[in-house]
Amino acid sequence: MEDSNEGRSQPYQDVLAWLRTATVEEIRGALAISWGLSRDDLERRIRSMMKSDRPMLANEFPKLRTGRISL
């Protein structure tokens, strides 16, 4: 199954864009109040950012790490 953003709602797209520049504290706050599918989507996107745009997030969210991440 492909993890594509195609067909996702605008609010979901907005969250993805927000994660690119959000501070660690803001991300922690979002995780603290999210649950269910919203939390799953947020965690999945954080993992994706760890592997690409923001590898340092792996240090801040070690429980979300999967596999080896190059810093």
* Count, helices: 4
Distance between the termini: 27 Å
Number of structural domains: 1
Rough outline = globular
- The total strand number stands at 0
Unreliable stretches (pLDDT < 50, length at least 5) are none
Quick structural gist:
56% of the residues lie in helices and 0% in strands. The chain is mostly helical and 71 residues long.
Keywords:
about 0% strand; 4 helices; about 70 residues; mainly alpha
Q: Topology, please?
A:
Elements: H1 10-19, H2 24-33, H3 36-51, H4 57-60
Architecture overview:
With 71 residues, the chain is mostly helical. It has one domain. The chain is built from four helices and no strands. The protein is globular.
